[in-house]
Write a structure and sequence with these properties.
single chain; about 450 residues; seven-stranded antiparallel β-sheet; 11 helices; globular; Beta-lactam-related; TAT_signal; Beta-lactam/transpept-like; Twin-arginine translocation pathway signal
Length: about 450
Amino acid sequence: MSRSDSLSSPCSDLLSQPMLSRRGLLGIALLAGGAGLLPRSLFAATDSAAAGQWPHVARLVTGYVDAGKLAGAVALMGRGTEAPVTIARGVGTLGDPRGIDADSLFRAYSMTKPITGMGVMMLIDEGKMQLDQPLADFLPKFARMQVQVKPDGSMTDLRPARTAITIRHLLTHTSGLGYTITQQGPIKAAYEAAGLVPAQVSRIPVPNFTTPHPLPSLAAFADRLADMPLVYEPGTTWSYSVSLDLLGHVIELVTGQPLDRFLADRIFGPCGMTSSGFRVAPANRERLTTNYAVVADHLVPLDPAPTSVYLDAPAYPFGGAGLVTSPRDYDRFLEMLLGYGTIRGRRVMSEKAVRLGTSDLLPPGIDTGPIGEGNFGFGAGGEVGRGADAGTYGWAGAAGTVGFINYRAGLRAGFYAQFMPPGVLKAPKEFPLAVRADLPAAKVPS
């Protein structure tokens, strides 16, 4: 069984249609920008050619920016190991004449989850943990968890969990853990009061956005989380959660490295992701875009680039929502996955680890109704296709980004914008459909 409630928080990743099919799309945040007068930056010469190759994508990007609904947007599409095609329009910050491009920096939010998930797959492949190993082997406090009798109900009406949380459960959001962007009632309030909100939005106090006092480390995060009751029995329900953040601490325990150092050494460096991390380096600050909020149909800076909260180091690396990256960098991660662990002749992961991580890892009997009417499964931190939609893997972020691969088409694709809250613009949802419309009909099954 699976939760069918919509995710209504400003930072949520909405679950809608599956990828490259009208039956569904990767779970994505439909986040918005308002109308306003924007400078009109022309496509670069390379983008003019790209617009001819990808006309539906070009119309999508151009339409949203020229209508004043987005300050700027970038789309990258690539086949196999070919260099990506870039379509970019607009600016990273209103009032700044510099155009947005493939090297602009974006808050990836939950697009961090597939990267953390693949880090876990590396360690499974190396025998340092097992897919179905109990979490309590690494964190003994999780050995005797309590479960809410009624999900999101009383914090005292609890029963002992019958099933141990496993690494598989954490990778696939079936651990029973909560999330302030999905839960309601007392447990949501308890998570917030305990500082169990592993993300950052702005230095500016914003109505309806939680600004917790951050915990000092991932170890403290894991310790405090173990004191909370589970919302669901492990292995029974797909419910979006903080599980990838918790896996970040498991990575630290297994490797003896801080999570950010592990990801830099094992994924960012080998993939050539030179602009990716949990903090924007001073040398890169001019490339950071502004994240906008919609207020009365106007774009209002929510996290202005010149004073962004991402210019400072976070309390700890948020493995589920903390990454800042460029479209070019994230495309390199997707290219590595599309190459079954290799990029430009360099092996980053084993083929076995990639194949397992991009496969459906959900426990038997899980209904994924909220993820595209049940047509999709879940892998290592990202959604995967089933049936006619097999071969897709990816996820999206709460500020208007989405990235995915399709093995059948030999395709990688990403859309990047910066806007909140959800439910106003459908650009990330429409992007995969535009990509599909621009592909030869024989490449991707209907």
